[in-house]
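Entry type: protein chain
Record version: 2
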Amino acid sequence: MSARSLTQNLAEHIVIVGGGAIGLASAWALCEKGVRVTVLEAGQSGEGALWASGGMLAAGFEACFELDPAHPLADAYAQFLSQSLRLWRDWAPVLQALSGQTLGEDLQGSVTPAFTPAEEERLDRAETLAKRFGVQATRVNGDELAHLEPALAKARGALIFSHDGQLDNRALGGVLSDAVRSRGGEVVEQRRVAALDRVAGQVRGVVLENGERLAADAVILATGAERFADMPAFAQMTPVKGQMIRFDASDLATPKRVVRGLSIYLAAKSGGRLIAGASSEPGEWALETDPDTLERLNSAACAAMPTLAGRPVVESWAGLRPCSSDAMPIIGEAESGLYLALGAYRNGVLTAPGMAELLLQALGAHPRTVLAHAFSPARLGLKA
């Protein structure tokens, strides 16, 4: 029996606007269900925010340090992060087998050191949230941390999230594109969408910048911070610029785990790359870097890992994180024929498989779960 015959509720041809982590992951999940998928990317697939990101799979850190515990969707989001991380454990070997490229997946955990009394207090609060959200977190003292991570500066203690990790974000776009194409999907680059094509009140395709129309049974917007004129207002994300730097650490001992510090993060990638980031600049669209911000990142990185002192920064760049009006993902049907996969904010790489799964639910491939309702475009207050 074909995959298509198993998923008759799904649209036959779906156009996905956006070839980043979310768009490509959703395309692959739909291709696996037998759907004919066309991904339209304005530039090169896998570039943009994905290329600029840190490739973090830090569900524990994000839930316990970055998530506002008073947010009405806090518990749902923590669950969503954890679910997405579990999905990556299943997805990574399959994608690599289809592509032949390595993803650089590393699930040795993340560590959050505390260098000051104020940061120790933040560890205390994070431990409490870990219990609330069901996150595995282990507290260690300064001596224990020095034994576990000798490359780090002397700290007062740390929290270790043993399930966290990372992958190589700059490889992910190519791996996902290969996987989509291996299942018969199309990834079309240098095709910018200018508008949605509506027929009798239903979205039935897109209009490209050159005036060409591409028909589809459904359209998914996975456009990150990008916008075009007739997107629903609540689908237009606020950009949060992040600047990052890279060191050549090929001759240095680097931390075994991803370092998710409270003023800097450090992640050792293949080829001796050590990345450090990132600034947070809401509302900034320009992708230029600035010397003051880069120097702050450099100083913070050297303070956390003293052997970096005096080492030159070999690369710097910026990316745009897409943030929704309530700082939560928007996943599901926005109007007839139009679906959204937006608002991943800091966690596009981590949540890509989770967002793809919730899209499948919204499109009718699987029964809808509580999370599908929680992050639906129809949720209370989002459209206000």
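Comment: The radius of gyration is 21 Å.
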